[in-house]
Amino acid sequence: MVKGFYFSMDAVVGLMLMSAAAGVVMTDMEVGGIVSQEVEFDTYSSYAVDISYLIKKEDFSTLNQSYRDDLVESTVLQPDDRNIGSALAKLYSKDSSRTSELARNYFETFRYDVGLYIEGEEVLEINADSQSSKKFHIATENGLKTFTVVVGE
Amino acid sequence: MLFRNKGQAFVPDFMASVAIFGFILVVFMTSWNALVDNQLQSQRDQDLYIQGQRTMNQLINSEGVPKDWNSSSVDAVGLAEQPHVLNGSKMSELEELSYSRQQSLMKAVGGFQLSVKGAQNYEVGEEPDADTVFSFTRFALLNQSGDLKRVEVKYAVW
Prior knowledge:
The structure holds two protein chains of two kinds. Chain A is an alpha+beta fold.
């Protein structure tokens, strides 16, 4: 029986080694799977890209009428300023304190938390553990302004 | 006599060791197969996810082939007239196609569902019917006679 027992120990040790090798191989292969953090990050990246397009083309109709009227009456914005990106750049150039307010109201219409930086300066803060950003330019009468949109949750 | 006793002692030892080894081997092989199946499923999921992402990007950023395609001329599907600006008539043309043709254009082997919701609503495909379904949501604009309205584009693939 003793002989048989030692033989089984050999088998057990052999199988343990095989299992360890298999574990190493499987851990290496895990990299190929879908990780939820990866999906989350991709989602934020996609939203940041979407916002970079929408902000250049979307007009004030996403905001309520009274707020639009108030902006035109009390800031440098004109009734024909129809584009959110240009309006933000224009307000920012005139150092208007209402830039962050407009950014907040616009970004509230999106699903995730959104932050905004113009020329590297924080306009709208974002507090998110996981985030992704997209940098783009908006043409203004004073040249190109660099916008960075940060999306997270 | 002495020889026979030794042989008798050896056989139970040997049988016991073979039984233990066999049991452990069966456990190992079962676990190994489960792990391999799991990895293959992960790989399939990843391929499905990447293909879904590609299709979604193509739908909202590409015009398709030919540029002004309709239900009888489409070679590659794309709903945009410019990146992130969708053309409603292309969505209507897509609705005209059979499900199998839509599926082949979307490269969705298992199945898909696409919806555009906002100022105007469109929906093609089927209700998700699988254990693993990847869903992608993007924002774009829909051109309504020059007026750009925000829409939410949802694409589910399985």
